[in-house]
Design a protein that fits this description.
Layout: H1 9-60, H2 67-72, E1 87-93, E2 98-104, E3 114-118, E4 123-126, E5 136-137
Antiparallel strand pairs: 1-2, 2-3, 3-4, 4-5
Amino acid sequence: MKRVAGFTIIELMIVVAVLTVIVALAIPSFMTARKAAAETKAKTRLRSSVTLSEQYHSRFRTYSPSLNEMIQAGLTLDYDIDPQSAYIFSYSGSGSTWTMNGDPRTPGKTGDNYFYADQTGVIRFSSSGQADASSQPIE
């Protein structure tokens, strides 16, 4: 009998096993990179908030009481209302102050750090819970 060209079941099982090991090693690195990207995006949004809040303050001589007020004033905000977003942002403002927090939607999974910004323009973070004015500034 002639041998037919092709792969044996053993060879295919070895290839599948090797691919499984490679994927298992790659997933943690992928998740870490994904969390880092989400945290970078959160910091960028807070930096934008600092700029936009100062623009609002320059125009109206007071800080905006809400994000909607800034949008109505014609200041564009890049915030996802998407429920799949990795971070949840909350803003509050009054005449002379404002604060904004960016918290991971699922701590440990979508992000490890909590972020905070206010009228000082300093963005702060905490890895142990919601950040505030006494948290460590980012570098």
